[in-house]
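Translate structure to sequence.
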């Protein structure tokens, strides 16, 4: 296993939607046995799914947020 370990930050709280800034839930998807993150706001459709672990879902959320914030800079 030569996979590089990326720091996920504090995985207990502080995760917000890259599109609207609302809190994001990371949970297991019972239909596929994978993890997903989903914006908790009713008006926002941001979602990520198919991750093998809760940590990978949070890393993907952070990467998406960084890319989304740099779009118009």
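Result:
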């Amino acid at each position: 296993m030569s996979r590089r370990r990326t720091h996920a930050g504090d995985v207990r709280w502080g995760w917000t939607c890259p599109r609207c800034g609302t809190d994001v839930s990371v949970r297991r998807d019972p239909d596929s046995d994978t993890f997903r993150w989903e914006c908790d706001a009713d008006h926002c459709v941001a979602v990520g799914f198919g991750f093998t672990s809760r940590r990978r879902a949070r890393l993907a959320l952070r990467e998406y947020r960084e890319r989304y914030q740099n779009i118009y800079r």
